[in-house]
């Protein structure tokens, strides 16, 4: 490792620099899905009038259907060493990959914005700081973690997984 900042984005990662393992993905994906934005998004199905049982069916079915193309890309990842959106050029062509690329960029911007607002409101509620300052703090820390990159994201994911398990176990017991 030459420095603490992420050096690769869409460039292939050389075999000598690859060090992840499938088991390290559990905490990464668990932590990214057990947070306030995912919880609020999941409850929207019930808040708009869907019965909780059918909301659960919709969430499980949506995850199952979304997992299939993601699994196919995940199988290619170790062989190609490039991110998913770059891999999709092989299936869709350079121009055909534009629509998924635009959609995923919009999705990431929306996810970052909604996560920053919800997380910032939570920070403001906990600390007593103004909501705008909480949002800026939360967004800044999130961006810093992304800029530093892979290793810090995985370390934070392990910590967030532990915290999430404790918090959600406590909330489940309270319910």
UniProtKB/TrEMBL annotation:
It is found in: Membrane. The chain crosses the membrane at residues 26-47, 53-72, 92-113, 133-149. It is a multi-pass membrane protein. The keyword Membrane applies. Keywords: Membrane, Transmembrane, Transmembrane helix, Transport. It comes from the Bacteria. It holds the Pfam family Transp_cyt_pur. Belongs to the purine-cytosine permease (2.A.39) family. This is Purine-cytosine permease family protein. It comes from Saccharopolyspora rosea.
